[in-house]
Amino acid sequence: MARRKRAGGHGYSLLLKDSVIYGAGRALQKFLVALLLPLYTAFLSQADYGILGMVVTVTTFLDVFVTLGFDVAFSRFYFDDRSEAARRRVITNVFYVSTVYPFLLLGTAAVLMPRIAPLLLGKEYNAGDWRYFVVGLTTLFFSNLNDVPFTLFRLEHRPWTFTAYTLARIVVQIPLSVLFVAVFHWGPMGVLLANLFTAAGMQTSLLPTYIRRVDWRLHWDLMKPMLGFAVPALFTGISFYWLKLSDRYFLLHYQDKAVVGLYTVAYSLSQPLYLTLMAFRMAWPQWHYAKLHDPVRHKQMVARSATYFLALNALMLVAMGAFLPWIVHTFLNQRFWSIGPTTFVLALSVVVYAVYFVFWVGCNVAKKNRMIPVFFLIGSAVNIGLNFLLVPRYGMYAAAWTTVAGFAILAVTVYFYSERWYPIPYEWGRLLKLTLATVLTLAVVWGLARALGQDVAMPYDELVLTTLAQVPALLVFPLVLWATGFFTPGEKDMLARLLHRAGRPAEAVGVAGAGAPTRAGDREHELSREDEDAEEEALEMEKEADVDFLEGPTTTTVT
Length: 559
What we know:
The protein is built from 22 helices and 4 strands. It is an all-alpha fold. Mean pLDDT is about 80; it is low at about 1-10 and about 505-559.
C-alpha cells in the first residue's frame, strides 16, 4: 500500500487541540479556585495572606534547588535510547534525585526553620510562624515527587491522563480548603494543610503509574551527564525566581505583611493569562519541533503561531482591563478592593513574559542556552534596583511595574541572542498593529469608565451597568485590526466561512459536512503521529514552578 501523504499546511488546529487538552484541566482548576476567593477573603485577613505569600515565596525559591534542573535532564535523556531498559535507568535516576536529595535538603530546612523564619519575616514575625513554613516545605516534597509521573505523561504523549489527574486534584483540594478554612477556622494553616493533604494524596494515587519502572539501582555512569545537562538550568531558575518573586521581600521590608497579602491576591487574579501561557507552552514545542527538518517551513510556523498566541494574549488583556473592577468587587472582600490597578499591571507582565517565551525558541532550536542565565541576571538586577528605588514610596504598584521592566529586558536580550543563532521572520507589522489595537481599545474602555464615574466601591448594580456599558467598546479591538489590514486574505476567508457556517441551521451544517470527515480525520491522525514523533526533538525544555497558595504547589510545566 502506498504511504499516505502527510497533510499539508501548518496544522494550527493541532496546536489548538493540544493546548486545549492540557489547558482545560488547569482552566477548570483555576476557575474553581477563583470561586474560593470570596471565602478566603472573608475568613483570612490581609496579614494572613501576607504570611501565605511569604511561604509561597520561600518554597518557590527552594523548589529551584530541589528540582536541580532534573526536569530538563529527564526530558532530554528519556529520548536518547528508546529501549525500556535505558528509559528505566533515566527514570530511576530521576526518582532518586526527586526523593533522597529533597528529603535531606527540605528536612534540614524544616529543622532550622524556627531560627530562619524570624530572619525571613523580620519585624512582622509572630511566635509560631515557623510552622507555616514547615508545612509548606513538606508540601513541596510531595509536589516535587508528583512531577515525575506528570512529566512521564507528557513525554509519552498522554494528555488525557495528565488532565484526569489534574482534575482529580481539584476533587480533593476544594472540599478540604472549605472545611479547614470556613468550618474549622484554621486560617492560613488551613490553606496550607489542605495543600499538603492534597499533594500527599496525589502521590499515593500516582505511585503505581511509575514505581514499577524504577529498577532501584543508582546509575552513576548516567548521573554525571544528566547533572552536567541539568545544573545550568538551576542558575536560570534562581535568576527567574528573583525576577518574579523577590518583590515580596521588598514589600515586606518597606511596607508590611498586609501589603504582601494584597499583592499576593493581585497576583492570583492575574492568573488567567498565565494559564493561557502554560497551556501554550505544553503544546507548542512538540508541535513546531516536528518541522525542524524543514527550516524554512519551521520558521514560518513559529512566526505565524507566535502572532496568533500574542493576539490571544492581547485580547485577554483588553478584556481584563474592561472587567477587572467588576471581578474585584464580585470575588473579593471589600478589604481587598484596592488591588485592581496592581492586578492589571501583573497581567501585563505575563504578556511580556509570553513575548520572551516566543523569542526564546531560537535559542532552543540552536541549542544555545548558555547565555540565558546571564540575561535573567541582567533582568533581575534591574528589577531589584528598581524595587529599591520605587517600592518604599509607591508600594505594590511599583513592584508590579518593576516585574514588567525585568521581563521586558529579558525579552529584548533573548530576541537578539536568538536571532544570532536561528533568525525567525516574526510578523513585526502585524505585531505592531496588534499593539496599536490593544492600546486604543484600552484607552476607549478606560475613558468610557471614567466618563461613567465607574469605581470599584460603587453600589454593585451600578457597577454592573457601567461594566455592561463598556462591552461595546471592546469592538474597537477587532475593528482596528480589520482597518489596519492585520488579517491576511486567507484569514479573512476563514472568518467568512465561520460566520457563514454559524448562520446556517445545525442540520444543514451536518449534512454539508457529511462527506468530509475521512480526509479531515486522516489529516488529524497524521498530525497526531507527527506530534508524537516530535516529542523526541523537544530536547531544550524549561521548568518554572507554578505555585499559588490558593492551589498549593502544582505539577510543573515544561516547554
